Amino acid sequence: xxxxxxxxxxxxxxxxxxxxxxxxxxxxxxxxxxxxxxxxxxxxxxxxxxxxxxxxxxxxxxxxxxxxxxxxxxxxxxxxxxxxxxxxxxxxxxxxxxxxxxxxxxxxxxxxxxxxxxxxxxxxxxxxxxxxxxxxxxxxxxxxxxxxxxxxxxxxxxxxxxxxxxxxxxxxxxxxxxxxxxxxxxxxxxxxxxxxxxxxxxxxxxxxxxxxxxxxxxxxxxxxxxxxxxxxxxxxxxxxxxxxxxxxxxxxxxxxxxxxxxxxxxxxxxxxxxxxxxxxxxxxxxxxxxxxxxxxxxxxxxxxxxxxxxxxxxxxxxxxxxxxxxxxxxxxxxxxxxxxxxxxxxxxxxxxxxxxxxxxxxxxxxxxxxxxxxxxxxxxxxxxxxxxxxxxxxxxxxxxxxxxxxxxxxxxxxxxxxxxxxxxxxxxxxxxxxxxxxxxxx
Length: 442
Ligand code: SF4
Known about the structure:
Blueprint: H1 5-20, E1 24-25, E2 39-45, E3 48-49, E4 61-62, H2 65-86, E5 90-97, H3 108-118, E6 120-129, H4 136-145, E7 149-155, H5 159-164, H6 172-183, E8 189-196, H7 203-216, E9 220-225, H8 233-241, H9 251-268, E10 272-275, E11 278-280, E12 295-298, E13 303-306, E14 309-313, H10 317-325, E15 331-336, H11 341-349, E16 353-355, H12 356-365, H13 369-378, E17 382-385, E18 388-391, H14 393-425
Parallel strand pairs: 2-5, 2-12, 3-4, 5-6, 6-7, 7-8, 8-9
Antiparallel strand pairs: 1-15, 9-11, 10-11, 13-14, 14-15, 16-18, 17-18
Helix pairs in contact: 1-14, 2-3, 2-10, 3-4, 7-9, 9-14, 11-12
């Protein structure tokens, strides 16, 4: 591959971001929480799945009814503790992430009542779901509970890749029927996840997947490249089987070609870029799981972003419940998020554009930003569209590469912390926080 100075620069910036993610144990509540928040969002993470997918980057566990009951009791305590600490703040959005939340469809009404009993819930309630779960009964339950947006983990419509590489045995016809059932209900917004750069997946296959999703009529499509993290069963299997994904001139060039084919196909099907990894026919109606700048992670293994810090909850369900029973929030670790002007511009570029006024304010704070913007324009990475500076396709490809590297490094760091926490949880409970975490509960 010819030397690419822009790619080298992007990699240097990514290294800078990645070296800034460093998790520490939570020792005081004020390390991670402000005394009061007026508005926030909740990321309620359901830790159970029907089975484990081979590519999954985070620890999880197979659904167990008894554990699910304990988990809901813990959730109740956790939300009560947050409410007693933060006051009955306004919750703008609840995102129920997984795991596979659709497994708990019968409990969804109780779960959302716990939220509205403790917070002033005003916004959308979005939930992740597996296409395998979406029967009429499940859809009735989650609609009745108040879920109005769904994000469905399809990953690919190809049965062979699903079963041979992703550990999911689903027929294409059943996935399509499930999506059609969902579209027949009046959810405000339906998103599906699709993966690319999968083994044996050609560029045409992902374009066909987008076409099919568009025909079914989903409002949003999120696309993620496969992230081969060394500790996942899929990576180990591929190494063992000698499967190579990349062909031609190299990983970056191959993935760039696939990603730009996706961007083009989305345009042809009237999906606008919402973030580098998600496209939508109605971008203003949806926020992705972690796009709110301030969201609290609820549940074992949940993560949040509060006060410019990523927080991680204890990953063990048992330990999580034990901590709550003793009156402690189950916060295990946190990492600061750097918040200097260049980082803010980079974050804006995840959404593909920045408003001129915002950029002007940031340039006032850090004059050196001007030279980066001039360079980006001269290199054909930025163009003006109305009052915005917008990433060109050339820049989007670098953005995909940067986002993937940052996501992989963050997932690896989170996994390391979760592993450490899991080891500790096998011994007697050791809580490093000061006793101030023992909040008064009614
Ligand atoms: S990818 Fe999703 S459904 Fe699969 S194991 Fe991970 S959390 Fe569960």
